[in-house]
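Q: What residues go here?
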């Protein structure tokens, strides 16, 4: 098992955007540090969140403009005022919606680069940051700038010379768009500095940061634009084949996700260098990572690019064994958790176990059947991470309210409890589970109903927007009872 999961621990799931604060979404400010303090005092040793990359307009962190960049919307611009790059009035205008975050970042970037020119120590720090991140930073900065210059069109809709990354066109664009390129580099520098503060504070409190690595990257991303040789895109930049899953009991037509697939042989020929760089960036930010759709590392469902559903396609073998071996050769024991939910084959289980990666068990999937259900707590094993629910599930209260009578009766019989006790019997079972790590979404700790659901898979509206109004005080029941349970079940 990975070194970060050698003893029983527990954690809280809350994405950064859900933190409270004065801005339109949570940011990497003192609220993040306060949240770390609260969960640490309650006996939790892990903070899990979703991918950190810059999002498209729909806001899904699983569809990012870059798998390496940090989302500039997560930057706490109050720090820019402390350094004199913004005024207090600017922050007030930002809070009250009289100044957009993008405009505020552009203004701060201008003053930042003026300081870089005047202050040798800052100039040296910025140059070191650019050198350390050159594998992705310059490509992403130009990509993001070109998106703005072309009214947010996808990269394959740009002029051919830019679409195909012809050196003369890229050089000219870099010169023309220099101000915005500098803004993006400033944003990524500030994100990295603020993230370092959060990580240092977490480590000082004995809290590990648990990130999320989507198996695929967005078609419209700097990843694909700058590395087309590794993806199923043709000479026009369009996808010959895309990712998804075939029809199952969740959907009669399957699911078409639309991500380009990997050209696994090309990846292997490069010794998986792109993957290694990608994982290194995230491992520098976090202590452990969840690989979303781990199943796709063993075999993937390839859908013709013209299809709008998942009915037509075929399973093909992936080279995940070679990839994981290359990662292990580079990093040693892998601090990875496999998202292995759903219909998983024996080969997928074998791949996970070969590299000693914990899998996932979600208690909301456990009830309404018989005692053999693998999600029931007595079926869990040490090499697992147990959850009441994930970001894709309803809250436990919402799940209970919508549960069938069979499910409700099974829960009552299993726990010897009544409905008014929810969600704590499910939380207790998650922490009592043999699983090495137990994760509780913050919504469940607060016993919130379905209005606090974070995401409903397969829908585009009203997702990713829930947030805390405030972080509960230390004497709140959610923390006090958590402390008792974490002590009771040996997770401290």
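A:
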């Amino acid at each position: 098992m990975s070194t970060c999961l050698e003893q029983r621990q527990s954690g809280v799931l809350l994405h950064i955007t859900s933190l409270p604060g004065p801005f339109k979404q949570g940011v990497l400010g003192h609220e993040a540090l306060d949240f770390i303090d609260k969960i640490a005092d309650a006996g939790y040793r892990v903070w899990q969140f979703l991918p950190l990359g810059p999002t498209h307009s729909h806001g899904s962190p699983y569809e990012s403009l870059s798998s390496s960049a940090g989302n500039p919307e997560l930057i706490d611009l109050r720090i820019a005022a402390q350094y004199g790059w913004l005024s207090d009035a600017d922050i007030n205008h930002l809070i009250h919606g009289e100044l957009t975050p993008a405009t505020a970042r552009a203004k701060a970037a201008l003053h930042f680069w003026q300081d870089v020119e005047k202050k040798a120590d800052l100039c040296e720090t910025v140059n070191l940051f650019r050198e350390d991140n050159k594998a992705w930073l310059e490509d992403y900065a130009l990509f993001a700038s070109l998106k703005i210059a072309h009214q947010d069109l996808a990269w394959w809709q740009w002029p051919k010379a830019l679409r195909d990354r012809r050196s003369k066109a890229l050089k000219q664009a870099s010169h023309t768009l220099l101000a915005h390129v500098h803004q993006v580099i400033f944003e990524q520098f500030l994100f990295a500095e603020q993230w370092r503060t959060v990580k240092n504070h977490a480590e000082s409190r004995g809290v590990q940061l648990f990130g999320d690595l989507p198996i695929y990257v967005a078609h419209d991303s700097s990843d694909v634009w700058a590395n087309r040789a590794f993806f199923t895109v043709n000479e026009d930049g369009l996808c010959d084949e895309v990712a998804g899953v075939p029809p199952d009991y969740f959907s009669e037509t399957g699911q078409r996700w639309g991500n380009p697939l990997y050209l696994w042989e090309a990846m292997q020929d490069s010794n998986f260098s792109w993957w290694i760089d990608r994982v290194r960036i995230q491992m520098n930010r976090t202590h452990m990572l969840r690989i979303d759709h781990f199943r796709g590392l063993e075999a993937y469902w390839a859908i013709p690019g013209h299809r709008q559903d998942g009915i037509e396609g075929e399973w093909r073998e992936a080279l995940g064994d070679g990839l994981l071996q290359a990662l292990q050769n580079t990093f040693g024991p892998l601090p990875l958790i496999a998202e292995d939910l759903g219909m998983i084959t024996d080969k997928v289980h074998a791949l996970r176990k070969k590299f000693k990666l914990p899998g996932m068990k979600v208690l909301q999937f456990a009830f309404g059947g018989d005692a053999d259900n693998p999600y029931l707590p007595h079926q869990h094993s040490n090499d697992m991470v147990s959850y009441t629910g994930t970001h894709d599930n309803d809250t436990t209260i919402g799940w209970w309210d919508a549960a069938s009578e069979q499910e409700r009766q099974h829960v009552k019989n299993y726990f010897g409890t009544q409905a008014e006790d929810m969600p704590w019997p499910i939380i207790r079972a998650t922490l009592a589970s043999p699983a090495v790590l137990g994760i509780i979404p913050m919504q469940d700790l607060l016993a919130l109903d379905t209005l606090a659901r974070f995401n409903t898979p397969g829908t585009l509206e009203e997702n990713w927007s829930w947030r805390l109004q405030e972080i509960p005080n230390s004497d709140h029941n959610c923390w006090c009872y958590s402390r008792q349970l974490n002590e009771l079940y040996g997770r401290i």
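A: Context that may help when evaluating the design: The CA atoms of residues 364 and 399 lie 7 Å apart. The first strand starts at residue 9 and ends at 13.
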